[in-house]
Amino acid sequence: YMGTSLMDPLDVWTGHPPVLSPDDGEAVFEALHSRFWAFVRLTPEARDATKALFAKLPACFDTLRAERGPHDTGQRYYGYYAVPGVKDVLFVKADRDGGAHPLPASAPVAELASAFAALENVTRTVYRGVMKAAGVPDEVALSFIESPTAPPDELRGPEWRTANELAAFRYIVQDTTEPCGIHTDYTMLTLIPCAAEPGLCLIDGLGFEVVEPEAMCRAAGYDPAETAVVFAGEALTLVLNGMIVAGSHGV
Prior knowledge:
By secondary structure, the protein is α+β, with helices and mostly antiparallel strands. Helix content is 34%, strand content 17%. The chain has 7 helices and 10 strands.
């Protein structure tokens, strides 16, 4: 590893990066630049909303599978779909005030809306700080993630104001399956609240090795319920002309 870093050298050598404040844009930028990912601290609102959503999702997915049947409905970026024996997915779009769009009747709409609003607020704070650290004016940064004139259609109501979305996944782990192989996202930024058990894996830029951030979170004594992982997507790499590399990750 060459160059300067805003991270404590001990954290680099032990492999336990610090949990950064969402509004510390320079530190998050440096972590994304050097490690390709970072830990950020969730606000109390995001922590509580995520906990409430996690409690509702298992029953929601069970009901949706029963209603729709355990078949592959085809990947799409709105609503529910399933891949047999691999995963259940629920994509949600909402406005910045937390109002959710029509979803299956069995979906926990209130919890989804609350989690969307709280997690989007954290992600927007991180994103704006990272873009500022990269020298991008705030109005330009916001223009990439807001679409105030977007026309409504059957998937987004007239209040739709953001390109952001909430994706909830349940992976079904079997000996013969790899639920989600290593890949990059198309996003500007992806923020993932840490789960109670390890599963997420990332390519760490310091040693170019696969790491499990949730296991690292526990080993470092961090509270997973208050911690999230953030990394860049392909869109941010393109916008910043390669200053930050899209985070490679999988499950």
